[in-house]
Amino acid sequence: MMKSRISLTEASRRAPRITARGDSRLLEEGAPPTFADLAGALQFALGDGRIWLNDERMVMMQTFVLGYLRRQLIDTIGIDAARTLLYRTGWSQGEKYADLVQKRFKQNDLTAALAAGPRVHTMEGFVKVTTKRFEFDVSRGYYHGEFHWHDSTEAQEHLTHFGISDQPTCWMQCGAPAGFTSTLLGHPVIFREVECAGMGAERCVVIGRNASAWEDDLPELAMIGQPQAKKRKAPWNPPAAPPPVEALPETPHLIIGRTVAIERAKRLLERVAGYDEPVLFLGESGTGKEYFAHRLHDIGRTPGGAFISVNCSAWADGQTPPPLVGPDSAFERAKGGTLFLNDVFALPLGQQSLLASQLGREGERPQLRIMAASSRAPTEALKSGSFRSDLYYRLSILPIVIPPLRDRRDDLPMLIAHFLDLHSRKHGKPLRQISGTAMGLLLRYDFPGNVRELSNLIERGVIYAEPGGDLEISHLFTGIEELPEFVEGLHVSGRIVRRVTGQADAPEGMTFTEIEAETYDKALRAADGNVSAAARTLGLSRAKLEYRLKKYGLLP
Fold it and tell me: C-alpha dihedral over 375, 378, 383, 388, to 10 degrees?
């Protein structure tokens, strides 16, 4: 029986780990990520002042401003230093391009991944890239590519401020493909302009080669701090299966975030760690006040002591909790450690008197540290007379305000990744990632329950999702949450579109599953039965949509 023959492209698609060479001429037309796929990764939260490219925050800036910044750099530090700085910036930008391709789009071959670079570069608006051809051989560390750049903003701004140049001017834009390609291939690839619009050419012509193929010196490597070509690393290759869940050592109660609001809270925490004076944590429910208290205990003067937590609202709820003061009380058990009074403004007046008298009998050096927390405003409790002012001023010597999650949205990607890893380990269920549509919705959701709600959503998604699969909107949201009315995205044509995510227009009585199925059905009918086109509209891969269509019986 004659064996069937398949093309090199098909072999690469079926066995990406076997094919170590690639040629852009063999790439299937429309290989993802297409411009439509990339447009789906770029989303806008217009009223919130944020633009996201997958989980990375972006900004819009006029090319005039970039040109002004470029001129100021050259005038201030000189043309050579400015070239180095901008090249490094472009290289870092290219590394982020590669990170996007690896995280958002699961390619089946390295050729398709490399082909995505010029599309991302074009989409960001710096230049229109036309790929003439590229080829590579991983085993030999070989790469050669030729690209044409049209309407380079960098070249145009250089012309505006300095006139015709005697050398290529697209420094940042040469760094971007170099960083992208080097990251994916695992060895340095240098891109240079052989023609540049900044020198008066009609368009820029760019050649990319592996570092060893350039016969002259390599100043580009020196610009990024690599005077010599580093030893080759293994090129990127999409994993065949999700990595196993491994237990790794973690810092207890590590506070995750880098926004100004959370950094301020962390700095205050570190400053008060070496003292014994009381600390009062203020913030909305779910912001992590007790978590912060645990962190302060860990880095404080008595990390080996006990951490005793008391729920002060228990008295108001008619419960009979363990005594706050007296023999075998919370106060006694916390000596040598920390006493944490949660929801402190709910403490009854009788218990407040006992606590105030106990604090008044303490010597010059306390035997324990008191931390308190409340989601209620102190002024409200004091004005109503429900909390003693003398006790309040004793407990609030060192106040720390924990910001709500909606005020630290730039921390969301880090927190999402953290909780996904945490709950995957907890339940022994490895997952690939959160889908682009689900991530887009999480970045816009207001989280009335703050960090606690985010953790619960991710844990729910981990439990509901298929092992080794992606977390989708249907896994995270049950339909009872108050979702945004719309999510802004970028259509491939360049216009901003609104994608409805809520249920405001859904027929009364429909379940979330029925709404999901109807959404897929409408998208398929709107695309005249074209599954690929419907998938692009929904921001899904074709395989994912086809799976869901089969699941709901929407395919023949």
Answer: 110
Task: Kindly state whether residue 348 falls inside one of the protein's structural domains.
Answer: yes
- Would you call 153 helix, strand, or coil by DSSP? helix
Question: Is the dihedral angle over the CA atoms 314, 315, 321, 326 positive or is it negative?
Answer: positive
Token pair recorded at residue 180: 């992208």
Q: How far is CA 189 from CA 32, 55, 84, 335, in A?
A: 23, 27, 17, 62
Q: Is residue 10 part of a domain?
A: no
Phi and psi of 57, rounded to 5°?
A: -75, 140
Query: Residue 282 sits in which domain range?
Result: 260-402
> Each residue of 143-160: pLDDT tens digit?
999 999 999 999 999 998
Domain boundary among 402, 418, 449: 402
**Greater model confidence, 104 or 300:** 300
Is 274 inside any structural domain? Answer: yes
Residue 416 shares a structural domain with residue 542: yes
For residues 462 and 431, the answer to whether their CB atoms sit within 8 Å is yes
115 and 83 part of one domain: yes
Residue 179 lies in a domain: yes
Residue 224: half-sphere exposure toward Cβ, Cα within 13 Å: 27
Packed helices 412-427 and 450-464: angle between N→C axes, nearest 10 degrees: 50
378 and 448 share one domain:
no
Q: What is the rounded distance in angstroms from the CA atom of residue 422 to the CA atom of residue 441?
A: 21
pTM of the model: 0.66
